[in-house]
Amino acid sequence: MILAYISLFFILNTESKEADLKRDFQALFKSNPEQALRIPCILPTTDLKLGISSLYGYRRHPIDGTQKHHDGIDIVVKKANVVATANGIIRRVGFDKGYGNFIEIDHQNGFYTLYGHLSHIFVKPDDKVQILSIIGISGATGNVTGEHIHYEVKYKNTTLNPLNYILLLYDSISSAH
């Protein structure tokens, strides 16, 4: 029943304003933290010396110059740990000419996250991971102009803006005090 509630809850709220998403996550975190921690809710790195070089949405591709939709955000870091942004199971690990070395996590509630351009991967398919588990190291593999983490959040095969998710847990903890 709880999983059905969460699925319906997030289908209805994936396009809500950021403030609504934060409020809804805080309520879920208070009532069922185990379920809340299966929703992507933190930065995909513990390195706070970072920048964001490319946002979610349409942009001029930095290599081929064409206008394309960017399905994630690019977080500029150097040799940084890459961490799971929610509890889940490793769905896929591999190499793609665009993403380079990548990891995809199934959070078992309709959410998936993807971490691309990694120099090292520490997990394999079917591994269980917890939020903050180190799963890889940032890199410059695949189609890139420099070292970074490409990070995507998907809900039932629809990409979502990761910026709406990366601070959910921090906001929930800080609002509790």
Automatic annotation (TrEMBL):
Entry GO MF terms: metalloendopeptidase activity
Gene3D superfamilies linked: Glucose Permease (Domain IIA) (2.70.70.10)
Pfam families in alphabetical order: Peptidase_M23 (PF01551)
Limits of the M23ase beta-sheet core domain: 69-162
InterPro entries: Cell_wall_metabolism_enzyme (IPR050570), Dup_hybrid_motif (IPR011055), M23ase_b-sheet_dom (IPR016047)
Protein name, entry field: Peptidase M23-like protein
Organism: Dyadobacter jejuensis
